[in-house]
Amino acid sequence: MAKSRAKRAKEEKKGWRDQLAALKNVPLFLQLIWRTSPQLTLTNVVLRILQAALPTAILYVGKLIIDEVLLLLEGSGDTTFLWQMVALEFGLALASDLLSRGISLVDGLLTDLISNTTSVEIMRHAATLDLYQFEDADFYDKLERARQSTSRRSILLSQLLAQFQSLITLLVLGVSVIAFNPWLILLLVLAVLPSFIQENYFNQQKYSLTRSWTPERRELDYLRFIGASDVTAKEVKIFGLANFITDRFEELSMKYYYLNRNLSIRRAGWGAFFGGISSLTYYGAYVLIILQTINGQISVGTLTFLAGAFRRMQQGLQTILSRVATIGENALYLQDLFDFLKIRPGIADRSDAIPFPAKIKKGWVFENVSFRYPGAEKFAIEDLSFELPAGTKLALVGENGAGKTTLVKLLARLYEPTSGRILLDGRDLKEYRLAELRDNVGVIFQDFFRYQLTARENIAVGRIEELEEAARIEESAVKSLAAEVIDGLPEKYDQLLGRRFAGAMDLSGGQWQKIALARAYMRDAQLLILDEPTSALDARAEYEVFQRFTELISGKSAVLISHRFSTVRMADVILFLEFGKRLEMGSHEELIELGGRYAELFNLQARGYQ
Ligand SMILES: Nc1ncnc2c1ncn2[C@@H]1O[C@H](COP(=O)(O)OP(=O)(O)OP(=O)(O)O)[C@@H](O)[C@H]1O
Questions:
Q1: From ligand 1's centre to the CA of 193, what distance in Å?
Q2: What is the reported pLDDT for 327?
Q3: What CATH number does the domain containing 243 carry?
Q4: Model ipTM value
Q5: Total number of domains in the chain
Q6: How far is the CA of 470 from the centre of ligand 1 (A)?
Q7: Is 98 in the same domain as 221?
Q8: Is 289 in the pocket of ligand 1 (CB under 6 A)?
């Protein structure tokens, strides 16, 4: 059962300790930045070091200018020196502007590259994971968080680099202020510490809220998608679902808005209070410096220098401290990325995995195989034993939910049996190298995907390495009867299919099935499985397609799933499943002879066609 939101929010509450622990990801992240582009990282650091020294230099030149002006007023100053200093300050101001622009340019480029690199890493990693992981809600939340934190990572990148720069600026300013008045540093800490603690508290609250809302945000995205998409538009109109979907979206999104609003209001209130305290200490320091100037302890130039330096240090320290909090917070999101990358697939090669047979000799044996989907109560396949000798065409029949597709997934090792074994040429399927096994088992599922790509690419997905092999693609299309469909398209094989992109043309259900079937011919695997990809064809067309298929792949093993007995009868062997168990098995003639369920259903359908 889904956990309640309040309970999840509590679980997701992250404290100081978690934030500190998350900081351990920062070095890993820095490595990632460096790996992405050493040149850009180095340029960024150099530019920031230069920029960091400028505020102190500008303030100090300002002090020299004021003192020189006062000396001139008293009649003892040096005009040439004064104008030299003015020119220097102008030069420094110009340099500061140029450096800022350079830094934001390099930051932007690095951010884009990091975002690309991590997206690619997430996609590559997701591809290695198991099918059942994709069917698990917690897994999706992790994937979603890893994906969504892309912008967080970009912010973290700029923040880390800016933090480095601010620290250097603070150091340079601090050294010069201590030289004049060490007490100012103490006042400075008093001014910023309370507001740092407050900032940090609210950052944690915000993170907990966002994180605990991951499933709801996923639901919001889903509602947004089904509310307005090419795939659902038809049903939304016919069933009049628009209000149902938008109301649900509105209710959920407003709930989040109110929670977020309350947090933002409290944050703004406390922020204003501590901001006031900060200003108070600044003016305290200001009074101290003015008194020193009146007493003749420091010059007017030094007064402006110190007042300016104190203000900059106060702002700088405040930024540094609040950045520590946001860096900690964003590092928590980094944790999501690294956590996701750490997920390992359950179905993987053993260290001593053996090569897949170049030519299967004996075939497959199911030995008391049972399988239960993760979290399911009932077995989808239960204590199933049968043989599929190499070169045999096996048809699977059974009612909806009998376990036919599940059996196919077990054969392709998309899942592994909960108990029992599947043997291939006498060895457990788990012993073979997974990539080779997948290479040698081709499945066209009933819910095959309609890629919004060209007709050529839609066929080539059967063996994408051969995308450039036009002759092979066309030959597969001829075999599956997709060639006739493609001939009728304006752009032929280069015709974009679907509805999503400009210039695309959509096909009928049956036409799509012919395209999908061509993938099986591209695959050229030792075991080909057709899991009802022909349901949109009429009975005669389906019969022809299957007959063609069995002829064209003669010598190879095949598993065919169909609800039409006229098709099923052409298979060498028929396995009748009921509730995941073997009910009957044999050739069409044998099963008719047996006079059991198969015979009953066959006669029922045959009568329907008479
Ligand atoms: N991903 C899944 N997670 C949990 N249970 C599942 C999953 N897929 C299927 N099932 C359950 O396993 C059982 C067998 O389903 P399966 O898809 O293998 O049936 P099928 O014989 O192919 O049905 P159909 O003729 O409708 O395609 C069903 O009870 C179904 O509810």
A1: 59
A2: 84
A3: 1.20.1560.10
A4: 0.96
A5: 2
A6: 37
A7: yes
A8: no
